[in-house]
Specification:
Elements: E1 2-3, E2 6-7, H1 15-35, H2 41-57, H3 60-63, H4 68-86, H5 95-101, H6 106-122, H7 128-131
Antiparallel strand pairs: 1-2
Helix pairs in contact: 1-2, 1-4, 2-4
């Protein structure tokens, strides 16, 4: 079932939704690869935030609870995109690239979103039925 843009299956393993995200990221990565020589670094970063980070961060608190192996395809897609933006080859380590562009890798993005949720829950910014 697709509910508010998130695919929910009967086992809650999120594989269908992760495949959906992976497909969207693959299209965007292909576009980034083709246009990277014609755009400035700032434009490429804006495209990353618009078309990659927006898809990966939407409903991330739900689908990131899946098994770690299910997240690998998303993680690899994000790393591929950051290499393309940075004009690096597929063997280049991505940690310095994430730091250079001030972008959170998938694992840190998940922890960041979880921390924000817990803070909102603790400080009363989330409605009572959710906090119960």
């Amino acid at each position: 079932t697709k509910y508010l843009g998130t695919f929910i299956d009967n086992k809650l393993n999120w594989k269908i939704h992760i495949e959906y995200i992976k497909t969207k990221l693959a299209r965007t990565i292909g576009i980034l690869y083709k246009i990277r020589y014609f755009m400035t670094q700032n434009v490429l970063l804006n495209l990353y935030y618009s078309f990659i980070q927006s898809h990966t961060s939407y409903s991330i608190l739900n689908w990131s609870a899946t098994h770690e192996t299910n997240l690998n395809s998303i993680r690899l897609s994000i790393e591929k995109a950051i290499r393309i933006i940075s004009f690096k080859n597929k063997y280049e380590h991505t940690t310095p690239l994430f730091k250079h562009h001030q972008i959170l890798p998938l694992d840190q993005l998940i922890k960041h979103k979880q921390a924000i949720f817990v803070w909102k829950l603790k400080n009363g910014y989330i409605s009572k039925p959710t906090s119960d």
